[in-house]
Amino acid sequence: MSAPTFEQTYAADVPELSTAWRAAVVEEPSLLVFDDDLATELGLDAAWLRTPDGVRMLAGQVPESWPTYAQAYAGHQFGSYSPVLGDGRALLLGEFVDPAGRRHDLHLKGSGRTPYARGGDGNAAVGPMLREYLVSEAMDALGIPTTRSLAVVGTGRTIMRERPLPGAILARVASSHLRVGTFQYAASLGRLDVLRALADHAIDRHHPTAREADDPYLALFEAVATAQARLVARWMGVGFIHGVMNTDNMTISGETIDYGPCAFLDAHDPRAVFSSIDHGGRYAYGNQPGIAQWNLARLGEALLPLIGRGPGGGEDESGEDESTPRPWPEPAEAAVEAATGVLAGFAETYDAAFHEVMAAKLGVRTGAEDDPEVRTLVSDVLALLTRERIDHTQFFRALTDGSARELVDDAAPFDVWLERRSALLDPDTAAREARMNAANPVYIPRNHVVEDVLGAATEGDLAPFMRVLPALRTPFTRRDGFEDLARPAPAGTPQHITYCGT
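^ thats the sequence. predicted structure below, dont judge the formating
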């Protein structure tokens, strides 16, 4: 057995954006849940991580010689700009390279106050940390790019929220924790060298082909926009609502990050909002593509000082030292036009990605997603689901199984829709069924079930949590005993409300 070896390339490449910090002391950490398969996939020694020394490491209890960092970033939160956010209760434990040569962060949430805590206590409760573990596992199994949860460790602390709750730390794995907000913070410093170093790090780590472009920083912007367009299209396909799409919650890698007030649709409704703080519906289900584009516009603004510039040489075009803080000059018209073009391209990429997702869900011919008849078929069935408040996941799985008509109250127009669809179906029945079975899950993290299992876990009973985990890790395979994950909440269930995990 052996301890992992970590690096800190981000802190070395862009030291201005990280603060060396230590986790709060945890006297007796306890392992609540651990993903052995993920550890093995990542090349980590699962057996060592389960030892007392491994569990202490997962709680941030590492030697003084081991550097750990809180990362700085800014962000637009519900449309309002906050110039300094950052890891208020989190630490970057380090980076490691898996057997496939991919670099990952191991990051802790709930590890204590940092200089970015903004009045928070730096703690996290068992329930929200287990929520992120459960939902991120489900998202990965659904084929959606996401951060992963390696472990949840109990801290033994009692933390105060609406009532006393048991404390926990989440050990999260991500391609990185670079966000749109990271670039906003770097741009706010007024130092071209810092912004350039951040962009170069992001290119090398996530989008290396951008380095070969005539304008690498514009190519970086385009690569991030493409990744986010495809990500949100996949969210929409499974009815996922992120709940808090602030710019500090949008990654440069294209992974889903931060599962606070997230939820999945029951009745299909573009206006669906579950977050207790989203009073205006800014982050409603149907608004997610537009919000992603808005967030990307903020990334474009941050990158404008670099767009159109070549590699840095220590001085900018005016001959001034790039490390000298100063207000940015008015961006060149060509840079603005180029960035605007990327944003326009986002809409086109998202539209194509969304209809590709929906074509698979409907079983129409491969490559037919651009057919106007297919697009009308998609819009019409989504209007039907909204009008009749039909469960999103249940409907598409029933369409796969041939029983969707049973869910529809007004059968006549649905029969007409089915007839139109039949003319567009993939003629290869086996291929069509396989494609639909892989696009339409049987199981999702049903909101009412998630709340029940987290409530039990908060009271010390992890058995309900462990019961649902296997089904959510194989969401396309029907199995006995998981009917509660395959259907919406029973009639009379109170409206589901989610909260930020702070």
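The chain has a mean pLDDT of 95.
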